[in-house]
Amino acid sequence: MLKGVPKILSPQLLKVLCEMGHSDRIVIADGNFPAESMGKDAIVIRMDGHGVPEILDAVLQVFPLDSYVEKPFSLMEVMPGDDVETPIWDTYEEIEKKYESRGKEAIGHIERFAFYEEAKKAYAIIATGETALYANVMLQKGVVTD
């Protein structure tokens, strides 16, 4: 156990977050996301008993978002024709604005299949038990300036 580090951040996840460099990406995936097949070249961390919001909040406490790109926080767009509501995105926005001075301006959307292609290039994918649909988040790491 460490002081000041959210308990949900496992030793494996902390190691991965520390290993990541500027511009590396991590995906926090919902329970429907094909984490294992998308993560063939990534580190896949299983956190099935947790939802995306609690993991996102913990990660953003220690993970700087990239200030050199316009949208370092990306969500998977809802496919046209899918009758899906995404209230979890409001939750993400509330979490993100606690840690990112740009607020929701740093949040972007990536078309579903383009999101999958970008996820294949991620450094790591966290597989969660999140049941909300279109609840996937991709974060691009920035630099620590303190």
UniProtKB/TrEMBL annotation:
One Gene Ontology term from the biological process aspect of the record: fucose metabolic process
The reaction(s) this protein catalyses: alpha-L-fucose = beta-L-fucose; beta-D-ribopyranose = beta-D-ribofuranose
Keyword terms, alphabetized: Isomerase
One MF term in the entry's GO annotations: fucose binding
InterPro entries: RbsD-like_sf, RbsD/FucU_mutarotase, RbsD_FucU
EC number(s) recorded for this UniProt protein: 5.1.3.-
Protein name: Fucose isomerase
Gene name as annotated: fucU_1
